[in-house]
Amino acid sequence: MFEGLKKKFSNFIGSIAKKEEEKAEETQKEEGAVGGKSSEPGAAKIEGKEGAEGKARDSRQPAEAPGEGHHLKEVLPEAKKEHDVKAADKSAGIQGQYREHQQNGDLKEERKTGKEEKALGAEAQTTQKPDAAGISAGAGEVKNAAPIRHERMQATSTAPDQPARKPGVSAGTKIKGLIFREVSISDKDIEPFIEQLQVALLQSDVNYVATEKILNSIKKDLTANPIKASQLEAQISSKIRNAIFEILKKGKKADLVSMVRERKERGEVPFKILFLGPNGAGKTTTIAKMARLMLDNGLSCIISASDTFRAAAIEQSAIHAKKLGIEVLKGTYGADPASVAFDAVAHAKARGIDVVLIDSAGRQETSRSLMEEMKKMNRVIKPDLKIFIGESIAGNVLLEQLKEFDSAVGLDGVILTKLDLDAKGGNTLSIASETEIPILFICTGEGYKDIMAYDPDFIINNIIPNN
Prior knowledge:
- The chain is of the alpha/beta class.
- It has 3 domains: 3-35 and 183-248, SRP54, nucleotide-binding domain (Four Helix Bundle (Hemerythrin (Met), subunit A), Up-down Bundle); 38-158, no CATH class; 256-463, P-loop containing nucleotide triphosphate hydrolases (Rossmann fold, 3-Layer(aba) Sandwich).
- It has 18 helices and 10 strands.
- It has helices spanning 3-38, 41-58, 70-75, 77-104, 109-128, 145-158, 169-180, 187-203, 208-224, 232-248, 256-265, 283-296, 313-324, 337-351, 368-381, 397-409, 426-434, 456-463; strands at 182-183, 227-228, 271-276, 301-305, 327-330, 355-358, 385-391, 413-417, 439-443, 451-453.
- The strands form 2 sheets. An 8-stranded mixed sheet has the order 5-4-6-3-7-8-9-10, with helices on both faces. Strands 1-2 form a two-stranded antiparallel ribbon.
- Helix 9 (208-224) packs across helix 10 (232-248) and helix 12 runs parallel beside helix 13.
- The two termini are 19 Å apart.
């Protein structure tokens, strides 16, 4: 029952919930990445400058002293180690030559001093010149370390293409949302799913006007306030339930038994009910079910076999009456159905029978002659209740039939039959949305007790389970 609508809404709810969960997870990952980088704004900027301009700077500037270029040490430890070894070997060689000249006494004091200065100058030049990776010698004395630090600090503070990342308000708001785990659904987020649901509803026999009412209500409810992520699917389901329930609750829970009893207490019997509808909708069988309902509640009834047009219709009424142990008033085929119904009412009044259940020939709303005959029955009998019997598998044509019958005689209620078949269930929403005619009962099988009073909660629970 209502399996078609149930499947459509289930897919819709699941799709939205899945998308919003993925969006929340993606936002959480992005904010986590931002949090990691912004924890040390200065470091992130210096690293960016080093990576982008390291080679250019290394080719024109002396390197830092050991212990002051810690960023470079972390980046190229192997290169530094290799260069330190080379520089140390070269320095040791120069100093060894100097000691040899000093011991042999081959150099005069002036010449010794000049060569020492020259040797030291060569050593300093070697020490100041970095290799391709920009790593300074670790064994010799390094010059101009202060100017290097000054230039690096200046570059860091003035570089226009590497702005420092500031912790923004929007990021904080998102993180706060993640902490409290709420998801805000926008019109843009939901639009693709709304379009899919629109097609699904139309395919499930919900007419266009009712579909638009449902979709507009769903969009309004889903985008109005943030939804708790931990209850995402349940809350989406709840909002859709509310939107549909607002339409379904227009129907009235029928209490025909109470109506008949009230009339009986006032001495106004019999209570006359005329059943109308198209061919094959199940009027005769539904009349038998109503008779069973009256008998179960201690009320007497009689069937008026006023369908004098369809073959075997009179016999069908007689069989049902026999099974139920009640009377049936029959006419002949081709007789005036209004006269047969009139006789049944007179018989019930004489016998003190509480209810007269009046059958009628099935007719299409496009048959003007049969519609005029129905109007005549209405004028002659003056029924207390006029009930339209419609099959739920009729699709959107059911709503058009209902409107035509209501325009002709003024309907008091609807009974939907064959909901146990492959009924999509959408015409229930269409009737509740497009007319003021209440759905009184729904039939769920062929048995006499397979009828139940209309209940919006029952229908909505069969379309969208209450989580």
